[in-house]
Design a protein that fits this description.
This protein has helices at 27-34, 46-60, 198-208, 343-352, 381-388, 477-482, and strands spanning 3-9, 15-23, 38-43, 65-70, 74-80, 82-87, 93-98, 104-111, 119-133, 149-164, 183-188, 212-219, 234-242, 247-265, 273-279, 298-304, 312-320, 323-324, 329-338, 354-365, 418-425, 435-439, 455-467, 494-501, 510-512, 515-527, 530-540. By secondary structure, it is mostly beta strands. The chain folds into three domains: 1-36, no CATH class; 46-167 and 212-282, Immunoglobulin-like; 291-365 and 457-540, Sandwich (Immunoglobulin-like). Residues 1-21, 36-49, 136-141, 170-208, 286-292, 369-449 and 477-488 have low confidence and may be disordered. Residues 371-434, 464-494 are annotated as: Disordered.
Length: 541
């Protein structure tokens, strides 16, 4: 008789907590074992996982298109009403989600079964404005008032944080599986009977760890003030020439949105994982059009003002409203009349006056309030020093660093409950509350570093200068018949007709929570030291 001393199994199929001596050579025992049902382990999602899966399916079913990107640890899926196909550097087609102003941005993050330990999953949506100008001010050129800048400003930030607890796989030797268990033990009768080995138990536990789904959804901010509109996606890089010496510089501007999923395990020996997916918010007039194809319905005349008394009056006339597409042309009329009426003075002004029309752009960014992102793990003093030198305001440093000899510096863990930011909406977007929750293994929420310094740049984009007023308005027939004096006709003494051709790479007008891009027309009429001028606001779509 051969006896083996190991953690035994009772005849009823229950795992015992004491050691038992089993006589394998006994014929009676073998006959008894042949009549017992075998144990088979099958994986089941369970009611909780099925509920989360149904929420994900209903969210993804709202929109017909789904874009995804994946890594070894997780997968990010975003549902959208439409997509745009682009090719990367390797000529591989990728779909980018496209959303409208009133759409909701939602999707899911799928964690791989290998991420079964505790940690934190954060999903962040962010809208940024980046302005890069490497120009150098030219000597004697007053049109450029900026300086060398390369700044990135976040005008919208919202985040969701999911605290992750480790998965505890259910043993197939449990007494009775609970209804919500992910592993169900079923008994099947077969002729072949064998003892369960430790390798089979471990494989069953591995099958018990399944991918976990974490749905998320964000609302795009809505303006609370008239005249404000969420900026649309834009990107352009242009070569700009300015100055008397013909100096040129490159100017890059972009307005972008993205979704970032970040997995941060509590164990410092595990690797973090991060996925990013860009979002597109195209403007309503994405297709190029020519606003000059049809004449405007209304024209608005605005007077030019002088600080001193001058012997003439002048004005500029523009279409109303003064909103133009980047591929359009801005038509305008500049007129003048003498006061009091003088035919000789009118002829002299029409010949010697100088008309100047300049398109001016003013860019400003001032994000004064601090935004909050998902809480970052505490770092060692050395890693904090490295983090302070980083130029990015939103880059998260890992909680461990590897010295030259490969030793890992572990981060001390907190022994008391702390607060985490479960859902945060940046106060700079005009709304939203910050809600906090308590989690045992959470880390302290930390604010971002100081925002970039305020940006202010003004530059002349286009300029037209004309000598004199080449045209004189003609009177209509009804005016000629009814008017006996020229002063009663209301017609100006001189007229100049011009137009400014816009550029498709121009940055559109922006007015949103600390980010401002404005365009103006500076118009002036100069005659023998007497000048009238005015600045009119334009909207570039």
């Amino acid at each position: 008789m051969t006896s083996t001393r190991k953690r035994g199994w009772s005849l009823g199929g229950r795992a015992t907590t004491h050691d038992t001596v089993i006589d394998i050579s006994s014929p009676t025992l073998r006959k008894t074992l042949s009549t017992l049902p075998a144990l088979q382990v099958s994986t089941d999602t369970g009611p909780l996982t099925q509920k989360a899966s149904s929420q994900v399916n209903s969210m993804l079913a709202q929109y017909p298109h789904t874009s995804s990107c994946r890594s070894l640890h997780m997968e990010l899926c975003i549902a959208s009403p439409s997509v745009k196909l682009i090719r990367d550097e390797l000529q591989i087609s990728k779909s980018i989600p496209v959303f409208g102003e009133n759409d909701r941005v939602g999707g899911q993050v799928v964690l791989d079964p290998s991420c079964h330990h505790s940690g934190r999953l954060s999903v962040t949506i962010e809208g940024t404005f980046q302005f890069t100008s490497s120009g150098t001010e030219a000597v004697g050129d007053p049109s450029y008032t900026g300086k060398e800048t390369k700044d990135r400003y976040a005008f919208f930030t919202s985040a969701k944080v999911f605290p992750i607890t480790p998965i505890s796989p259910v043993s197939p030797m449990a007494e009775s599986p609970r209804p919500t268990s992910a592993i169900r033990v079923r008994s099947l009768s077969t002729r072949m009977r064998r003892w369960p080995s430790f390798s089979s138990v471990e494989s069953a536990q591995g099958r018990g760890r399944e991918a976990r789904f974490f749905p998320f959804q964000f609302d795009l901010p809505i303006s609370q003030q008239p005249g404000q509109e969420l900026p649309k996606t834009f990107s352009a890089s242009t070569l700009v020439g300015t100055g008397t010496r013909g100096r040129a510089f490159v100017e890059s501007t972009s307005i972008s949105y993205k979704i970032t999923a970040l997995w941060e395990p509590t164990d410092s020996h595990e690797n973090r994982a991060q996925l990013e997916m860009p979002l597109l918010l195209p403007p309503d007039n994405d297709l190029p059009r020519d606003d000059c194809a049809a004449p405007p319905d209304f024209w608005l005349e605005m007077p030019l003002i002088s600080s001193i008394s001058v012997p003439f009056q002048s004005a500029i006339t523009l279409p109303s409203p003064a909103n133009f597409s980047r591929s359009a042309t801005v038509p305008y009329y500049v007129v003048f009349t003498t006061a009091p009426n003088s035919l000789q003075l009118a002829k002299d002004i029409a010949i010697n006056a100088t008309i100047s029309v300049t398109l001016v752009r003013h860019v400003s960014a001032n994000i004064a309030s601090r935004a909050y992102l998902p809480p970052s793990p505490p770092m060692s003093p050395s890693s904090e020093a490295e983090d302070s030198d980083s130029s990015s305001s939103y880059r998260m440093k890992p909680s461990r660093r590897r010295p030259f000899f490969g030793r890992v510096v572990s981060t001390p863990k907190s022994s008391h409950p702390s607060q985490i930011l479960e859902e945060a909406t940046s106060p700079i977007n005009g709304g939203g509350e910050v809600r906090f929750g308590i989690h045992q293994n959470a880390l302290h929420a930390q604010p971002l570093r100081s925002p970039n310094p305020p940006l202010s740049e003004t530059r002349n984009l286009k300029c037209q200068v004309s000598e004199g007023f080449p045209k004189r308005p003609r009177r209509r027939k009804d005016q000629v018949q009814s008017a006996t004096e020229p002063s009663k006709t209301g017609l100006p003494d001189g007229l100049f007709k011009g137009e400014l051709k816009l550029d498709k790479d121009m940055l559109p007008s922006v007015n949103w929570a600390g980010i401002s891009v404005k365009y103006y027309l500076d118009v002036s009429v100069l005659y023998r030291g007497h000048e009238t001028r005015s600045r009119i606001s334009l909207g570039i779509l």
